[in-house]
Write a structure and sequence with these properties.
This protein is α/β, with parallel strands linked by helices and 257 residues long. Helix content is 43%, strand content 24%. It is built from nine helices and ten strands. A six-stranded mixed sheet has the order 6-7-8-3-9-10, with helices on both faces. Strands 2-1-4-5 form a four-stranded antiparallel sheet, covered by helices on one side. The longest helix has 25 residues, at 232-256.
Length: 257
């Protein structure tokens, strides 16, 4: 579904990706792990054509992304759903209008009744039917995240790209999002790349992990295969993750009280 070879990308002197290879197979969930700033988000922006690579090949559904003209790129993007870290909902629109927007814009000749049917069905899938007439500002962070995923899914993409799906969420809500990612793959037969530095997310959603460090993948395999490594960089990441998560939890605990 996704085939990447020898991918390079720099911004000025900052070499973000330095010769990356990755294959993602049908209906597979691949987690790309790495600290912030390691190039994870740059990678998925290249996959959906938001950024151009400096060199290397990136094929998505058999098409070389950076060689496509605007029209073909738009066509391809309809098959690739991008779930943004901040949910990217339109604040001035209700949940219903947020979900209607991509449908009305991209699928011709849908009756209003059909649009509403699809919206209701999708909200039901993410467990948020009751929010249909609410505004994004009335929703919790976890609900906004789910609505963002629903809006991406409503066009039935074959590939889902999740950018830090659990960031900023409390542990219970994070588990709900991880379960939703697994449910989406199961119900809609999606192939996914999940960008995260959250090990719980990686372990519960990833069939395979690819560990990004200083612009290169230093390990790929199942969660256990990657983390039984003696490689200090991987061990440090494991420790950093739990310390980092404890710090985040402590600070969000403070904010809530």
């Amino acid at each position: 579904m996704i085939h990447i070879r020898d991918l390079y990308k720099s911004f000025g002197d900052n070499e973000v990706l330095q010769g990356i290879d990755l294959d993602v197979f049908e209906k597979e969930n691949v987690v790309v792990l790495g600290r912030s700033g390691s190039g994870k988000s740059v990678l998925i922006k290249i996959i959906c054509g938001l950024l151009k690579p400096d060199s290397g090949t990136v094929q998505v559904l058999g098409q070389e992304v950076d060689k496509l003209n605007d029209r073909d790129l738009r066509e391809l993007r309809l098959k690739v759903g991008f779930s943004f870290q901040n949910s990217a909902l339109y604040d001035s629109m209700s949940v219903r209008e947020n979900l209607a927007f991509p449908l009305v814009r991209n699928v011709r000749n849908l009756s209003r009744k059909e649009v509403n049917r699809q919206i209701e069905s999708m909200l039901n899938d993410v467990g948020l039917s009751q929010t249909i007439d609410q505004m994004p500002s009335e929703l919790s962070g976890g609900q906004r995240k789910r609505i963002g995923i629903a809006r991406t899914l409503i066009l039935r993409p074959q590939i889902m790209l999740y950018d830090e799906p659990t960031s900023g969420l409390d542990p219970i809500t994070s588990i709900e999002i991880n379960n939703l990612i697994n449910h989406v793959r199961h119900k809609f037969s999606t192939t996914s790349i999940i960008i995260t530095h959250d090990l719980t997310c990686a372990k519960s959603t990833g069939d395979r992990l690819a560990m990004l460090f200083e612009g290169k993948f230093i390990s790929q395999g199942t969660f256990d295969e990657v983390f039984t490594s003696d490689d200090e960089r991987i061990q440090d990441f494991y420790k950093y993750n739990f310390i980092q998560n404890d710090l985040e939890r402590a600070s969000s605990h403070k904010q809530h009280h």
